[in-house]
Amino acid sequence: MKHLETSLASVVLLALMAAAHPARASPDAFDVLTYNVYLRPTTLFKNGQAIRARLLARVLAGYDAIVFQEAFDDGARNKLLSGVHREYPHRTKVVGRDVGLNQDGGVVIVSKWPIIRQAQRLFKKLCDGDDCKAQKGVSYALIKKEGRCYHLFGTHVQADDQKWQMRKRQLGVLKQFIDSVHIRSNEPVMIAGDFNEDRYRGHYREMLDVLSAEHPPQAGPTYTFNYLTNDLNDSGQFRYYDYVLYSRNHLQPGGSVNEVRSFLSPTPWREFFWESWHRDLSDHYAVLGRFVFPPAPAGLPCASVPAVGSTPAVERCLLGCKETLEACIEEVSRPGGRLARTCAQRAQRCRVAC
């Protein structure tokens, strides 16, 4: 009953926000869709990746930005990105890269608005089992919508309900990455992706605390991963894994909601004649994060853009500080590594020197 009451309240909130603050009508409103699109490499799996990529591109209009996860297959991913390019002409690089038989990280952000800065951070050796066959990590995009800047982080973390300790370490890398960007407290920060941590059980609250993040009220279906309602999902599980969060340490939205969205093909599809027909386009459902923020002060620049008059030498110096911090953080993750506080202090001294 509690879940039902929360869902009903969220539906009302979503309707009011949509009516009062259409995302495209205001620079202070921002819509982020997170979507695990289930485009595994076709060399290993055959479940209609090319067909679904084409169909997905037709139903994903109307957002400010989309964070894709599990866009592993190069051909299917290119088809998807080409299909949405007119609506979302700006995008980040894909997290990681293919190395031998191992995959890139499958995470990419596309945006209707210019991306004026992007970066990524890999989890590297922080992985377990089959997840180590992909270079998972975090993508960052600084998006400028009608003069206002939004910081968006996208990720896909360790799978398997039993592997919380590895997820926790990866979430620590994500949090350190956010902190390393040095975003002002009066700017919006959103964190989206497939977190593989179920909202209704396990370590959901601890996940939010590690990230210093909040989860907006929920609307739509109860689960984002549900074998009972999704004809591509044969997991035997129903979970809520996918989120668009906002940072507790940065600008707080005046209104926000996470709405689970199910995208279906208008007509049944199948890849081979002996297969069952499908309507679903991924084994996950997407989640829309809708946020309305207080108006930005007039003339406020993006803090993370290099300052006017910054010289190439200074930029090279700051890049060196960033690389030093990354190397230090990597050592922190090893048994007996130095304290994270030492890393932060060293990086700060480096930046001051620049």
Gross geometry? globular
Major sheet characteristics: 7 strands, mixed
The percentage of residues in β strands lies in: 25-35%
Order of helices and strands: HEHEHEEEEEHEHEEEEEEEEEHH
Helix content: 25-40%
Task: Tell me the radius of gyration.
Answer: 20 Å
Low-confidence stretches: 1-7, 306-311
Distance from N terminus to C terminus (CA atoms, Å) equals 57 Å
Summing up helix and strand content along with how strands pair, one would put the structural category as alpha+beta
Instruction: State the helix count.
Output: 7
Mean pLDDT: 87
Number of strands: 17
- How is the largest sheet built, in terms of strand order? 3-4-2-1-17-14-10
What is the compact description of this entry?
The protein is α+β, with helices and mostly antiparallel strands and 354 residues long. It has helices at 2-20, 49-57, 74-84, 164-180, 204-211, 312-332, 340-353, and strands at 29-39, 65-71, 90-91, 108-111, 115-122, 137-145, 148-156, 189-194, 213-214, 218-219, 225-226, 238-239, 242-247, 255-261, 264-269, 278-280, 286-292. The protein contains seven helices and 17 strands.
